[in-house]
Amino acid sequence: MTKKFDVIIPTYNNLSELKECLNGFSNQTFKDFRIIVCVDGSTDGTNEYLDNSKFNFELLRLNHESNAHKGRDETRNLSLNNISAEYILLFDSDMVPNNDLIRKHLELLEEKECISTGEIIYKNKSENIWAFYLQTRGKGKYNDREEIPSYYLNTQNAALRSKYFIESGGHDSDLSNSYGGDDTVLGYRINKKFNIPAVFNKSAEGYSVLHKTLNEALEQMREFGNVNLKIIQMKYPSFKHLFRFDIIESNLIQHKIIRLLLHEWIAKVLLKLIKVLPRKVKIKAIHYLVFFSIYKGYTSKIESE
Questions:
Q1: Domain count of the chain?
Q2: Please, what is the end-to-end C-alpha distance for the chain in angstroms?
Q3: Rounded distance, CA 40 to CA 56, Å?
Q4: Which of 26, 37, 55, 266 reaches 20 to 30 Å from 241, CA-CA?
Q5: Which of 208, 228, 252 is the endpoint of a domain?
Q6: How far, in Å, CA of 3 to CA of 247, rounded?
Q7: Cα–Cα distance measured from residue 189 to residue 170, given in angstroms and rounded to the nearest whole number
Q8: Residues 119, 227: one domain?
């Protein structure tokens, strides 16, 4: 019997977190769903666990041929030919849903044609600077049930009609398995094709513990600038405002001045001071570090061509 929701969860070698995630779905107050676990070449016993465990919901396991490892986007796209529900929930395996998560997404989707973009709460945001920063960016700047830019889509916790994901072709397979830009491009493409808004659904909560450090995150931003940002620029030339192509490549005097202020020594000073800065200053400092890292990655790619 076809379910109301297909919950699509990509996973790679994080069995202990996946167990917590699935346990959270076993406690949902809304029961009309199926879980589709897309395994990205895991070698930690994930396949055996899924095959040998019993759940109080229907579960489908999907793998790449020969259990290959291809990255989160291609792995989530494994679901495209297997989705049968009216709605899908895109959810990450290192997240734990609150008991009403699916119900809260459904309430919004039945009320309004949109992408329901759920809340992500990092339980260690008071200790992890990057987790603290993530809570303030993107949809974190908006109120509950407020429309947000479609490019703030975060597939860690988002629900929508299945047809939008399927007919858009899922994630852009041209993006590298490198870090960054995939969720943003998906939201942009869905909005451009179907003209539906994204809405912040604060009551649809997922919880996670973020292990990534600020330095690790900045290195990923540099990698994003070096690889996927270039691909996005080539494929979506009109999509410039979010990644600040205007500043990166503009010949306007004010943008040239901003680029002159992007210095390695400033970044090093900010990294040393970041823990003691006041909250508002800290957020602005991390903004600078993120843009600096993206810019350095992007320009180093141009220089190497």
A1: 2
A2: 54
A3: 24
A4: 266
A5: 208
A6: 47
A7: 9
A8: no
Residues 85, 162 share a domain:
yes
pLDDT tens digit at each of 305 positions of the chain: 899 999 999 999 999 999 999 999 999 999 999 999 999 999 999 999 999 999 999 999 999 999 999 988 999 999 999 999 999 999 999 999 999 999 999 999 999 999 999 999 999 999 999 999 999 888 888 999 999 988 889 999 999 999 999 999 999 988 877 788 899 999 999 999 999 999 999 999 999 999 999 999 999 999 999 999 888 888 888 776 666 666 777 777 877 777 777 889 999 999 999 999 999 999 999 999 999 999 899 888 544 44
Q: Do 29 and 159 share a domain, yes or no?
A: yes
- 46 with 130, same domain? yes
Same structural domain, 237 and 89: no
Q: Which of 177, 208, 239 is the last residue of a domain?
A: 208
Residues 149 and 40 reside in one and the same domain:
yes
Domain that holds residue 273: 214-304
Q: Within this chain, do residues 137 and 220 fall inside the same structural domain, yes or no? A: no
Residues in contact with 301: Cβ distance below 8 Å, sequence separation at least 6, in sequence order: 225, 226, 227, 230
Cβ atoms within 10 Å, residue 32: 17
For the chain, the C-alpha Rg in angstroms (whole number) is: 20
